[in-house]
Amino acid sequence: MLHILYIIAITAEAMTAALSAGRRDMDWVGVCIIAWVTALGGGTVRNVLFGHYPMSWVEHPEYLVITAAAALLAAFIASIMTKLKKLFLYLDALGLVVFTIIGCQVAQEIHLPYLIVLFSGMITGCAGGVLRDVLCNEVPFLFRKEIYASAAIVTGAVYIGVEHFDGSEMLATVSAAVVGLTLRLLSIRYEWHMPKFVYRDEWH
């Protein structure tokens, strides 16, 4: 089930990434690269940091085909996608939760400490979006007021906590998914935001 959700998540992430590329007038190659970076970048950054190989897209090259096809499809139906913005926000929330849980599982497989497991989940869930925004010359979504990284942290914390005390990976996965997805969707619905730091004084 987690693998199916992962495929859905990378497809949705690739499609929304294509729109970001389109807003920057990129060509078809640029659209595909932004889609790959967004959908697969979080796991790639995690694996590079922890020396965990092979990359998921090397082991499963079909992920590259799926995300590229989704991105090119999005480019053709961009006008329709704008009418489905809320749906893709929900799919993005699903992707955040799924990527976070997978990131935690990978870190556990290589026997990393709990804090690093949590960090791994957050990186996997969020790094792809940061890379997308940097490449598209935008302030990363993660660094703005949205409850995004914090939702990933909560998801990872629930996963680690439930598995530690209960020992069931299935229960930990379901619990983390429900809590993380609920938090992210509620933050979208009720426009919950993290406090912002605003500083305008010049030092010279």
TrEMBL record:
Membrane-spanning ranges: 28-51, 63-80, 87-108, 114-135, 147-165, 171-190
Residues in Glycine transporter domain copies: 4-77, 90-162
Family of the protein in this entry: Belongs to the UPF0126 family.
Pfam family, one: Gly_transporter
Species name: Pedobacter zeae
Keyword entries, A-Z: Cell membrane, Membrane, Transmembrane, Transmembrane helix
Keyword Cell inner membrane: no
Source lineage: Bacteria, Pseudomonadati, Bacteroidota, Sphingobacteriia, Sphingobacteriales
Stated name of the protein: Membrane protein
GO CC aspect terms: plasma membrane
InterPro entries: Gly_transporter
Main location: membrane
Membrane topology field: Multi-pass membrane protein
